[in-house]
Amino acid sequence: MSGDATCPAEVFRLPGFLPFWLAGTVSEFGSFITLLALQVLVVQTLHGTSFEVGLLKSATWLPYVLLGLVVGALIERRRRMPILITADLARAVILLAIPGLWLLGWLTLPALLIFVGVFGLFTLLSDSASQSVLPRIVPAASLLHANARIDQSYTVAETSGPMLAGALVSVIGAPFAVLVDAASYLFSAAALARVRLAEPRAVPGARSRVWSDIRDGLRWVYGHRTLAPMAVSTHVWFLFSSMLTTVFVPFLLTGLGMSAFQLGIALAAAGVGGVLGALLATRIGLRWGVGWTVIGGTALMVIGWTMVALVPTGPGAGWQWASLAFVALGQALYGFALGAENSNEMGYRQAVTPDALQGRMNATMRSINRAALVIGAPIGGLLADAIGFRPTILIGVGGLVVSLVIMAASPFRGARHGELAPELAPGFAPEFDDSGSPPDAAVP
């Protein structure tokens, strides 16, 4: 790596960051279209229930539960850029198959769950490699700025993607809207191919150390003074957040009788808030510290989702648009909180983790977070079908409060930027290949 980006604008001057950022930005834009399109497909096209929407979400993240820790350990000793490119190409092919199945009359919920599960496997590979490769492109002192730039583009995609998705679904139908996402993955693969990053070759015998590597990753995350409470609170957040996001789509479509376009507007409001939050993330994080930024963000999420649960309704189109405005405001608060806290959390955990443990740290946290999603999504759907949308949303809000309390009562509240990873974590001794270099060190 070269250069020292000391402000957000300068990270684009770092070799490799611009195409890496472009790849992620475009693919995220397409992903928000697919996220809405598939849920509308289940609810309106396949006439599914809230529980079946939950199953769709669970299928997406199930590979994280089954293979997340193993994949994280294996990726530690593999070149990561080829993994990213292959995963993008595979996901493009999978998405292209969905409208084909629909045209043939073979698109059923079980078939969709299988395709989404395979899609999730390649997303697991991409996520594990992507989060671990960023610290190789960007120096530790600039990780906050780099993650803030990534979050800003992510929230722009979150703003425009759902509205475009709502319009596309209304015009061409949900099965065909995913074609935009397929094209975005092809663009991403082409952009990533332009990243020139020297990476070490695969280490012989890496497979024999998989279980030892998994144990080391678990020890690092859950033995760390600030990462451990952050991880636990994040797991709780994902469990209840998955309930909230699962219920949200059928609540608006069936509970409030809104259209796919109106749903897109509500989701886009979260993106608008997210853009503002991401723009201010660096300033907030440096002034208030990582801990209080994340805690304050979670508190805003509680307020935003409470507004969704208590949205007023009434007869007529006028009341429906008033309800949409109320929901959109709640989603804007939620999006602002996500935008402000995410880059701070990501930059912090990447900065305090040695390169030799980046993949395992990310895999450990992501795998258990996704396990929480797999459990929480269908539970949210079942509760919504059994007791109603609003009580289920309030239960989810209560879970976010628990996550907030865990962070506020732990040493994580004092976490600040500037804490750097040790040269070698105590108790860990990564293998060296025959060149004498650590297997995870970037080749100069």
In short:
This protein has helices spanning 17-45, 50-75, 80-104, 109-137, 143-172, 174-192, 210-223, 227-255, 260-309, 316-351, 358-387, 389-408. With 444 residues, it is mainly α. The longest helix has 50 residues, at 260-309.
Could you characterize the architecture of this molecule?
- With 444 residues, the protein is an all-alpha fold.
- The chain has a single domain (8-414), classed as Growth Hormone, Chain: A, CATH 1.20.1250.
- The chain is 76% helix and 0% strand.
- It has helices at residues 17-45, 50-75, 80-104, 109-137, 143-172, 174-192, 210-223, 227-255, 260-309, 316-351, 358-387, 389-408.
- The longest helix is centred in the middle third of the chain and has 50 residues, at 260-309.
- It is globular.
- Residues 1-6 and 423-444 have low confidence and may be disordered.
List the helices and strands and how they pair.
Layout: H1 17-45, H2 50-75, H3 80-104, H4 109-137, H5 143-172, H6 174-192, H7 210-223, H8 227-255, H9 260-309, H10 316-351, H11 358-387, H12 389-408
Helix pairs in contact: 1-2, 1-5, 1-6, 2-4, 2-7, 2-8, 2-11, 3-4, 3-6, 4-11, 5-6, 5-9, 5-10, 7-8, 7-11, 8-9, 8-11, 8-12, 9-10, 9-12, 11-12
- CATH class reads Mainly Alpha
Rounded to the nearest angstrom, the radius of gyration is: 21 Å
Unreliable segments of 5+ consecutive residues: 1-6, 423-444
Reported CATH architecture: Up-down Bundle
Share of residues in strands: under 5%
Overall, the morphology is: globular
| CATH T-level fold name | Growth Hormone, Chain: A
Major sheet summary line: none
Give the overall pLDDT as a whole number: 81
